[in-house]
From TrEMBL:
SUPFAM superfamilies: P-loop containing nucleoside triphosphate hydrolases (SSF52540). Keywords: ATP-binding, Kinase, Lipid A biosynthesis, Lipid biosynthesis, Lipid metabolism, Membrane, Nucleotide-binding, Transferase, Transmembrane, Transmembrane helix. PANTHER family: TETRAACYLDISACCHARIDE 4'-KINASE (PTHR42724), TETRAACYLDISACCHARIDE 4'-KINASE, MITOCHONDRIAL-RELATED (PTHR42724:SF1). This is Tetraacyldisaccharide 4'-kinase. One of its GO terms (cellular component) is plasma membrane. Transfers the gamma-phosphate of ATP to the 4'-position of a tetraacyldisaccharide 1-phosphate intermediate (termed DS-1-P) to form tetraacyldisaccharide 1,4'-bis-phosphate (lipid IVA). One of its GO terms (biological process) is lipopolysaccharide core region biosynthetic process. The gene is lpxK. Pathway: Glycolipid biosynthesis; lipid IV(A) biosynthesis; lipid IV(A) from (3R)-3-hydroxytetradecanoyl-[acyl-carrier-protein] and UDP-N-acetyl-alpha-D-glucosamine: step 6/6. The chain crosses the membrane at residues 24-47. GO terms for molecular function: ATP binding; lipid-A 4'-kinase activity.
Length: 153
């Protein structure tokens, strides 16, 4: 379609101008990138100096994620990975933030009665497909601790 080609050309030219530094948007975003870098460095230093505490899970953790949400195939990868580990005899649990779910309480360890409305559709799908325990919470460490309290992993 001609519209798609023209649209691609416009976006491509705009991205080239931003990337090369010959755009007003580049000049606006540059100081913001410096600020982001400074904040990231300060957060990292606060952990190293002991001002902030990190939590280390007592079991191995594998993270399947990306910088973007939706449509990247994370759920099928998680299901495949869980099934592969189960076939090799590992006791596996899955932790999710439960995007799209509206649970009244967190952490929530899924059961047969947990609805997608409560936990989000992807955690429920993973639970149903694999039978592995799944916990959701905005803070991953809370979900891991809930799984470890209820399951031998």
């Amino acid at each position: 379609c001609l519209c798609a080609i023209v649209s691609f050309a416009i976006w491509s030219r705009m991205i080239d101008r931003i990337w090369s530094g010959s755009s007003l948007l580049y000049l606006i975003l540059l100081p913001l990138s410096w600020l982001y870098g400074l904040v990231s460095t300060l957060i990292r230093l606060s952990y190293r100096c002991g001002l902030r505490k990190s939590w280390r899970a007592p079991v191995p953790v594998v993270i399947v994620g990306n910088l973007t949400v939706g449509g990247n195939g994370k759920t099928p990868i998680v299901i495949w990975l869980v099934e592969q580990l189960q076939q090799r005899g590992y006791q596996v649990g899955v932790v999710s933030r439960g995007y799209g779910g509206k649970s009244a309480v967190y952490p929530l360890v899924l059961s047969q009665n947990t609805s997608p409305r409560e936990a989000g559709d992807e955690p429920v799908l993973i639970y149903q497909r694999t039978g592995a325990p799944v916990a959701i919470a905005p803070k991953r460490s809370d979900a891991i601790q809930a799984l470890l309290q209820q399951h031998q992993l």
